[in-house]
Specification:
Strand content: under 5%
Strand order of the largest sheet: 1-2
Number of helices: 4
Structural class: mainly alpha
Largest sheet: 2 strands, parallel
Length: 100
């Protein structure tokens, strides 16, 4: 596994329950600012049974970027952590974004 991916996984692991982080914030924490799109690519390759909280990652506007069934799954997992999601996929209170 390359350094970038390992740093993404490590930082993602520490995003607390009930909080979200943006792709850009996660890239920056991993030491690779301006690589937010790469974060999405790495997360898309996680196995379904992963224990990493991939669903706590949202876009810079505070919205879920996924669509269809994946959107619904991410929304469900966030709501299970008491994060309210509007119909358009945005985090109801974007101040919930974690700043690690």
């Amino acid at each position: 596994m390359d350094e970038f991916a390992q740093n993404i996984y490590t930082n993602l692991y520490y995003v607390p329950k009930g909080r979200v982080i943006t792709y850009g914030q996660l890239a920056k924490l991993a030491g690779f600012p301006n690589h937010s799109r790469h974060v999405g690519k790495i997360l898309s390759k996680l196995p379904k049974e992963t224990q990493l909280p991939w669903y706590r990652v949202v876009n810079a506007q505070g919205k879920i970027s996924l669509q269809g069934e994946r959107f619904e799954r991410q929304k469900q997992l966030l709501e299970e952590e008491n994060i309210l999601i509007k119909d358009n996929g945005s985090v109801s209170n974007f101040k919930q974004v974690v700043m690690l």
